[in-house]
Amino acid sequence: MTVLPYKDKDTAKKQQVADMFDSISPKYDFLNHFLSLGIDIRWRKKAIKQLQEIKPKNILDIATGTGDFAIESLSLNPEQVVGVDISEGMLSVGREKLKKRKLDDRITLKSGDSENLPFDDNMFDAIIVAFGVRNFENLEKGLTEMFRVLRPGGKVVVLEFSKPKSFPFKQLYNFYFKNILPTVGKLISKDKAAYTYLPESVKSFPDGKMFTDILDRVGFNKTQCKPLTLGISSIYTGIK
Ligand SMILES: C[S@@+](CC[C@H](N)C(=O)[O-])C[C@H]1O[C@@H](n2cnc3c(N)ncnc32)[C@H](O)[C@@H]1O
Hints:
One of its GO terms (molecular function) is demethylmenaquinone methyltransferase activity. This is Demethylmenaquinone methyltransferase. Methyltransferase required for the conversion of demethylmenaquinol (DMKH2) to menaquinol (MKH2). Keywords: Menaquinone biosynthesis, Methyltransferase, S-adenosyl-L-methionine, Transferase. This protein is of the alpha/beta class. A seven-stranded mixed beta sheet has the order 3-2-1-4-5-7-6, sandwiched between helices. About 45% of the residues lie in helices and about 20% in strands. The longest helix is centred in the first third of the chain and has 23 residues, at about 15-35. The chain has helices spanning about 15-35, 40-50, 70-75, 90-100, 140-150, 170-190, 195-205, 210-220; strands at about 60, 80-85, 105-110, 125-130, 150-160, 220-230, 235-240. It is built from eight helices and seven strands, in the order H-H-E-H-E-H-E-E-H-E-H-H-H-E-E. Strand 4 (about 125-130), helix 5 (about 140-150) and strand 5 form a beta-alpha-beta unit. The chain is globular, with a radius of gyration of 17 Å.
């Protein structure tokens, strides 16, 4: 079943996701760090470390949003980082951030759909996605496109929410995620749906082995899943 942000609208998931991120973009960074108590920053660092051994020169950050994962990838000293996203609102907050931090000559943010990437085959040494794949309208199509633009021997790193399994953490976390987070998110972002969509989309996302199975199916090798913080998030990797 497809989980939509705005259930009363009949537009496609992709358009709804773009509209939702446009709407919350001014508050996105603040809410991300606030609602995760800053853990998201550590997760991005850990995910980027998965690329240290291949020393990528060209990196593509898919669903880049306001560019935080792309910025973190600069720790690898690449020659080029490109970020793509379908939300102009998120990209414009990201561009402002890059300008302020004088990083706009190192990272290029472009409008682009993960399911139809505007790049040639085998162009990138590494593909990275943080908290993006869960929002794709067609997950397998998005992953197939990533595989296409990655060079043979290149590595994909996906960071995404997953579902904690151990008692009593699972119960405590579910209470926070389903009750507290949507209330605070709605209050601050003023978007009624966005922070209800978040737990719903995490619940329906094929996490853990189900996700590495899909990565295998689209062609990736040596796929792995590394759970973070008792399974709230996971890092998935694969090689082309
Ligand atoms: C939760 S944000 C993550 C942003 C950023 N990667 C981060 O770590 O903060 C998810 C992003 O995915 C983007 N997105 C969703 N579907 C997409 C698609 N089909 N193609 C490109 N971007 C997409 C949204 O617009 C949004 O900016």
